[in-house]
């Protein structure tokens, strides 16, 4: 299918914006990154081969724009730092960074889970959309959401019981 940038923008602008909001938790930054995403899409559209859905392709560009922003801010883009951002944002932890022991415990807990559960949560931590996660693991988007939600709650409960955070 031949896509025009006007069609893509009208059709997917809100999806891209809300996806970026889920990563950044910052309205202004999400608006800026949404614009950058569509500027990159204009340049890259001729190279789109259709190996994924157009929405997945746009989310991939958006995720890369977020990573670029983190790098510009001199923040390391490691799985550990992404896990810290993910945990802080969704758990409403104190402003101080999660200590190394807590991160070590999270990784230990993840190792106890199935490969699929661990993979779904880590893909979400890395900023993948539920659409992309569902595609990779061959499950529905709602199943991916449920698995991620339940595992995140298990981690929060386990960390609270061990005294790393408050429920």
What report would you give on this structure?
- The chain has helices spanning 5-24, 27-44, 54-72, 79-91, 100-111, 115-125, 130-137, 141-161.
- By secondary structure, the protein is mainly α.
Blueprint of the fold:
Elements: H1 5-24, H2 27-44, H3 54-72, H4 79-91, H5 100-111, H6 115-125, H7 130-137, H8 141-161
Helix pairs in contact: 1-2, 1-3, 2-3, 6-7, 6-8, 7-8
- Quote the distance from N terminus to C terminus: 48 Å
What Rg is obtained from the alpha carbons, in whole angstroms?
17 Å
Average of per-residue pLDDT values? 79
The outline comes out as globular
Q: Architecture of the largest domain in CATH?
A: Orthogonal Bundle
**Which class of secondary structure composition applies to the elements?**
mainly alpha
Q: Helix and strand succession? A: HHHHHHHH
Please estimate the helix content. over 70%
Task: Describe the structure using short key phrases.
167 residues, mainly alpha, Arc Repressor Mutant, subunit A, 2 domains, 8 helices, 0% strand
Short description:
This protein has 167 residues and is mainly α. The protein folds into two domains: 5-72, RNA polymerase sigma factor, region 2, helix turn helix motif (Rna Polymerase Sigma Factor, Chain: A, Orthogonal Bundle); 79-161, Arc Repressor Mutant, subunit A, CATH 1.10.10. The protein has helices at residues 5-24, 27-44, 54-72, 79-91, 100-111, 115-125, 130-137, 141-161.
């Amino acid at each position: 299918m031949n896509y025009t940038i006007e069609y893509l923008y009208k059709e997917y602008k809100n999806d891209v914006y809300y996806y970026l909001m889920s990563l950044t938790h910052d309205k202004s930054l999400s608006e800026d990154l949404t614009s950058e995403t569509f500027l990159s899409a204009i340049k890259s559209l001729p190279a789109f081969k259709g190996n994924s859905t157009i929405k997945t392709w746009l989310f991939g560009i958006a995720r890369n724009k977020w990573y670029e922003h983190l790098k510009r801010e001199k923040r390391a883009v490691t799985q550990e730092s992404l896990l810290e951002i993910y945990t802080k944002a969704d758990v409403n932890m104190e402003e101080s960074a999660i200590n190394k022991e807590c991160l070590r415990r999270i990784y230990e807990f993840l190792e106890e889970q199935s490969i699929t559960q661990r993979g779904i949560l880590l893909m979400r931590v890395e900023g993948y959309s539920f659409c992309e996660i569902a595609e990779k693991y061959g499950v529905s988007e709602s199943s991916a959401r449920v698995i991620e939600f339940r595992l995140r709650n298990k981690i929060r409960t386990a960390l609270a019981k061990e005294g790393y955070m408050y429920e």
